[in-house]
Amino acid sequence: MSLLKSLCRSPSAIIGGVLLILVLLMAALAGWLYPNDPLALAGRPLQAPFSNPRFLFGTDSVGRDIIAQLFYGARTSLLVGITATAVAIVIGVLVGSIAGFYGGWVDTALMRVTEAFQTVPNFILLLMLVVIFGSKIATLVVVIGIVSWTAPARLTRAEFLTLRNREFVQACRVIGMPDWRIIFREILPNALPPVIVYASVVMAFSILLESALAFLGLSDPNVASWGNLIADGRRVLRSSWHVATLPGIAILLTVLSISLIGQGLNDAMNPRLRRK
Amino acid sequence: MSELLSIEGLKVRLPRHADRGYAVHDLTLRLDENEILCVVGESGSGKSVMASSILGLLPPEVKVEAGRIGFEGTDLLRLPPHALRSIRGAGIGMIFQDPMTALNPLHRVGNQIAETFRVHTKLSSQEIQAKVLELLEQMQLPDPAAAARAYPHELSGGQRQRAMIAMALALEPRILIADEPTTALDVTTQAQILALIRDLQRRNRMGVLFITHDFGVVAEIGTRIAVMRHGVLVEEGPAATVLTAPQQTYTRELIAAVPSLQPPERKQLAPVGQAALSIVKVNKTYRARGREVAALKDVTLALPRGSTLGIVGESGSGKSTLARCIVRLLTTDTGAIEVDGADITQMTRHEWRSHARRVQMVFQDPYASLNPRRKVGELVAQGPLMYGAKTSEVMPRVRELFGLVGLDPAAIDRYPHEFSGGQRQRIGLARALALDPDILVADEPVSALDVSVQAQVLALLAKLKEQLGLSMVFITHDLRVAAQICDRVAIMQRGEVVEEGEASDVLVSPKHPYSQALLAAVPGRNWQTSGY
Fold this sequence. Notes:
heterodimer; B: 6-stranded mixed sheet; 20 helices; about 35% helix
């Protein structure tokens, strides 16, 4: 409750929140405003924005409605952002908490694996995994999660390293509490705040990764997505700039909104770090 | 005697959300030449804020609202920052509680002392070098040249504090402000530092403003005493008067709460057949990066049923390691720890779990030992719930335990941060008792508490031990506390038990030279607390 209150006092969280609500509304209203398939051919290709009242933002190079694709694309981006982040955070928290809690060879082994992932640039790794496992949207979110878990894992591990020697953890051991309960029920809630803040970074990054894949033509072609639209618009950038620019702005605003909320969360959760 | 420093009507305002309006309220105090004025008070009394306001070292949200601090004809509160800087170090030196955080870990100690000269004087670097060595020699460091070359982490706590004092006294200030300078030190080191401060003070006829919470230290060093409470000066006068004939009730209560070094008369415990806990030839060595430290060496001890065994020692003596071995937070290398004849070091994890509830622990730090995200009632209920009790049975028991440790049973739905340090220690005690243990291991349970709260918690421990028939292992560094609560005392030094016996023998006529040294170092040992 007090967290929500201090969030409302942070201007960046308010701006981010308003923007994110707009994106959520777009995703929610897509089916109601544009009941037809957004990927169906709707009219003459490459109409300019505001030139035809039927297509507010015009059409793309094959004659699909751009604004309908933007609304449906919001669904894809949010789906990718939320699910991929969930995958990354779950893997990261699991690896980080076990490594941090047990230390010793368990920690060494898990951290070597983490480093192995970190040494490969994650976009290259992503491309490789997409090539192997295909680019259906369900596969994509898992794969994006798999390339983004390392930073949350390190963060969780660092928190666990400082928390595991606290006396309240020792007190749990003294009453004979099993390790898994100490890790997940006692230490984890204390270790989560920085990880939650970092989740916003992961989320923004996942959306960008999906768009980048789509730009290269490696995302799911059967789903309306901002990245797919940009890839299409790239070919006609000099004649019809709006095809690539409009989804670009949508990505920019969504990622910005999530980052701003993350910043607000950080201020609210670490009041001591806030600047005056 | 001439007056060095005069504080008149000092009022220091706290930020809006603090628990009270003023940290210091209308305080008037003076410091003369050639005296040690001890300012005593419990936590939150405003004594440290008062000391920090003299040199303008208050945190930005704490503001001086009114008053005057006179020093050599000027008012320190109205000096511009650059003028105040030239007084810091040169006119008034200051030392702090923790010498480790006050020294920069990346610079050599000698360099940091030399810094004072470089800033305030125009001496050449050779002259500065010589001055630094001379100073360190005055601080009675065993090898001044080596100390000057060392980095802070290479020195012991006592040596670091000596280096800090050297830094503070480098420019021969008229006044030394010492804010709890010996609180983080072991008792024998504390005795040496106190002697050093007194020595230097006499030699230079300085005025020393000594902030402390410890009446033993006051009795040891003070020439005049000022007692503070909630930011207000309660009583002030010559040391002998305040210590032996205090005028105010609060001072009297504070002094009465200081445990006496003389163990009280105890009824003789009938010797029982089997000890509740016996520790036989336990060894434990820490190994890290090729270095070995023997934390426990052939420790053999017995805890008679229904009694309290004190384990006393300085830091690094192995007393906390021993406590953690008894509750299996650490594993031993060799030796046996027997609870009712069963060796817990040989138990499997599974066997230990069914055994764990018989030995429970109370921790030192009232802030770190309770999970901040759980309600206190949950914390106490956790143990019984884990051993299969039902919530409906446990909650009445938790309320009963809260009553037992002197807390309001209605408070079980609150979170740890809503309680004071003493109350939290009571919660920790309730948690330990929730499993109906036979043996309670208390690791410095009162060392983080104010003296009056400490007395209450000690009394509670003694009462509950009696009432519930517990046997207790009590770890402490404080011989006064040990004298009050322990039936038997074991003195540990560098992992070994050097002496063990009845408290009334060990603490009155110790045999081992180390026990004798430890006892001789207790501050204010000649001052009889019961005699005022």
